[in-house]
Amino acid sequence: MKKQFPLRSSLRWFLLLWVGMAVAAWLVGNLFLGNFMGTASLTPGKQVAVRPPLPLSLMLLFLLLVALYSFLLWMGLSDRIQPRFFWWYFLGQGLLVFTLQVVGGPLNLTLNFYLALVLCALTMFKRVGPVLLIAAGSLLLWVAPLGMKIFSIISLGTSLTAFWFNIWSQSDVTTMVFFVLGYVLVYLQQAHAQAQLERAHRELQAAHRELAASARQIEGLTRLAERQRMARELHDTLLQDMTGMVMQLEVTSAQMDRQNYLRAYQVLSQTISSAHTALVDARHAIRDMRAKTPRIEQFVASVQEEIAHFFQLTGIVCYAELDDLVHTPPQHCEQVLRVIGEALSNVARHARARHVNVEARVVEKWLEVTVQDDGQGFDPESSELHSGHYGLLGLQERAQLVGGSLLLSSAKGAGTTLRFRVPLATSHDPAHPLKQEVSPSLSGEGHTYV
């Protein structure tokens, strides 16, 4: 049910008071004053000649119909009538008042009922057209009995002068006073509704401005996130490939200085092959920006290729335990692959290690990927680490993207250990496709690259 405003409640009580006072005046005129006072007049001292009072049975029927009219009036002003029934409601009310008029209600009394009904229509309808139709219909229903009386008087050849005098003598200024007061209440209610509408419009405009500002902010954040993603992709793909080719060219130069031309040719051939591979990887990276989540066997194979490429490039012995990689959530496969690649790239560039361990294992609700080397290590408080020299910034961003964590521990001469934790798929996440179809050759069980 809609919220009732105080003004609407006041109008409801006012109309009921109006109807009640009009009926009370009519009862007084019928029961006590007889033919010496206007039966529906609320103006003291006005004596007119009217028809005889109603019989008791008709009076009881009349009061019963008035009670029904008042109840329906209350229902209409209490928002208990659905809009699709408005026309049926007012048609029924109009016919009910017309019945009161036919039963024996005086014209000035039923005029009160019709005017109250028009005020009710002003409140219930939101447009002028329906209110005008109801007002016109009420006027026609009120005038219809007059027309029948005039026709009968003319048929009998009687003068209309006495009839019109009797009609005007029953006119009641109190009726108009009540109608004007009711109209004022309706106007105040509509003014209140208009003020609420204007306030809601201002609030809507303010919300629209806030929404536009939020949209601009989201657009800026989206661009920033895209730039960060591109920076990570360039760092983890193109930069690593370029680093590997530089190292191979340095080896080629060293072999040339030693006049070991055969070995230099072999390394140079590998460099050319690496350049072609880097070009293919760049094309794949561009394609993968629009591609769907990789299949699990493709992901595990990519990790193995990354490790094999690391060994071919550096000659560092690499032990890999990759059984639990099959549990990697599909949406996190790319991040795990990039973290492993970045960790191995850091080993190749900075560690001077002889052995590297790459392990993936499930720990409770996490997939933990560990890359550990036996190299020279570094000082965790060094400025190079905090400035992002070891690619730590990109690794931290990837950990944040997957809702995981990153732990990097090292010490001078004690090697370096990187632990990257990824949350496993929940019951609401889709299971990894083809998890059951991973062959032992792709699982990476106990692989050693020497």
Automatic annotation (TrEMBL):
Residues 429-450 are annotated as: Disordered. SMART domains: HATPase_c. PROSITE patterns: HIS_KIN. Residues 335-426 form the Histidine kinase domain. Its EC number is 2.7.13.3. The chain crosses the membrane at residues 12-33, 53-74, 86-107, 113-143, 173-189. InterPro entries: HATPase_C_sf, HATPase_dom, His_kinase_dom, Sensor_HK_TwoCompSys, Sig_transdc_His_kin_sub3_dim/P. GO terms for cellular component: membrane. GO terms for molecular function: phosphorelay sensor kinase activity; protein dimerization activity. Residues 190-217 form a coiled coil. Keywords: Coiled coil, Kinase, Membrane, Transferase, Transmembrane, Transmembrane helix, Two-component regulatory system. It holds the Pfam family HATPase_c. PANTHER family: NITRATE/NITRITE SENSOR PROTEIN NARX-RELATED (PTHR24421), SENSOR HISTIDINE KINASE YDFH (PTHR24421:SF55). This is Integral membrane sensor signal transduction histidine kinase. It comes from Ktedonobacter racemifer DSM 44963.
